[in-house]
Amino acid sequence: MKKKIISLMMAAALSVTTLAACGGTDQGSAGGAAQQAEDSGSGSESTDDAGKTYALVTKSAGNAFMELLGTGFAQAVESTGGKAIIKDPQAATADAQISEIQSLISQGVDSILVAANDPSALTAVLKEATDAGIKVLTVDSDVDAASRAFFVNQASTELIGQTLLDACYDIAGGSGQYAILSATSQATNQNAWIDAMKAAAEADSKYANMELVEVAYGDDEPQKSTDQTQALLSKYPDLKVICAPTTVGIAAAAKVLQDTGSSVKLTGLGLPSEMVEYIGEDDAHSCPYMFLWNMIDLGNLAGYASVALVNGDTTGAVGEKFTAGNMGEFEVVDVDGASQIILGNPFKFDASNVQEWADKGM
Ligand code: RAM
Questions:
Q1: Which residue, of 45, 176, 182, 262, is most buried by count of CB atoms within 10 Å of its CB?
Q2: Residue whose CA is at the smallest distance from ligand 1 atom 10
Q3: Does residue 269 have its Cβ closer than 6 Å to ligand 1?
Q4: pLDDT (tens digit, 9 = 90+) per residue, 265-275?
């Protein structure tokens, strides 16, 4: 498998002025991204791709992770002369995504990229899109492999699971209770990461003294994630660690733990800008460290992948390679029967670097 180092430079070069305008139901095109791309020298104008329309359907509105994904996506698409359309469903449900996808089919877009809220509930509508000649691919959270060309994955699922389990183990001191605060119960990506954590825990007796007491679901809603964190604290007085593999969940849990002065510690997947005040090794901070990847890079890669599919640079078949703008060449690989391209490895954020990344708008 090809490993790509997350590009630190690219994020540093980006302006985040477009982010403030995002978060409605329809971001439209993240205005100015093409200009930013041109200014920073990324991408190139291609008349072949000009005039094409590339859509992204995010998991839900109001999620800063999805907004960064949209910014990177629009930047890549616009750098090729294409038009980006970004749809943010009001809730993180398959039904909300289905109606967005139906309206994109009616508009006759050239491609639909989706961060799926469910592995199988989108099958029929994605078939409708494919039958209409629209290229379909996924990012962040996959659907069943037959429903899309390939999945733009942020990092290996196994590696994310192993990394999160090791963080729980380390922070708990090698033994004790931990709980998971997830997003929705149907989310393909969170469920895959949680399964990978469980498989890693089974695979090595080193984790025998770690006890996973519950997987709770905050549905990527701040209030529900807060309530679920409070419930975990009252149900499990011996709890040592909460792992939240969702940026919405980890930010909500961090606030609860820090505001209440709880001794329970937190790790998971979080955005630096939302977690900067909670990260630190001392008692005053709830989260010693966490992980994520470069969201702008993920959006860029997904944008270039959409363009490559539409212009025929790839069909998405395993073994094919295509050039993702200035990010270089990527190969479609098979992971347990699911074709995907992989951005890189999870990146660790701790007290030494979280502020720097927050300052970059990540
Ligand atoms: C939330 C979403 C997203 C996930 C990140 C880590 O923003 O659930 O799908 O990848 O967390």
A1: 182
A2: 140
A3: yes
A4: 999 999 999 99
pLDDT tens by residue, 231-278:
999 999 999 999 999 999 999 999 999 999 999 999 999 999 999 999
- Tokens read off for 256: 């609860």
DSSP 207: G
What is the distance in A from the centroid of ligand 1 to the CA of 47? Answer: 34
Cα–ligand 1 centroid distance for 37 (angstroms): 25
CA of 347 relative to ligand 1 center, distance in Å: 15
Residue 145 has pLDDT above 50, yes or no: yes
Is the distance from CB of 110 to CB of 135 less than 8 angstroms? yes
The confidence score (pLDDT) of residue 302 equals 98
CA angle 64, 34, 317 (to 5 degrees): 80
H-helix or E-strand containing 297? helix 295-310
Vertex 190 angle, CA 320 and 73, to 5°: 50
pLDDT at 32: 36
Domains of the chain (ranges; CATH) run 5-154+294-345 (3.40.50.2300), 157-292 (3.40.50.2300)
What is the per-residue pLDDT for 50?
67
Closest ligand 1 atom, residue 59 Cα = 9
The pLDDT of residue 51: 86
What is the Cα–Cα distance from 72 to 77, expressed in whole angstroms? 9
Give the helix ranges, DSSP H, for 155-219: 157-172, 188-203
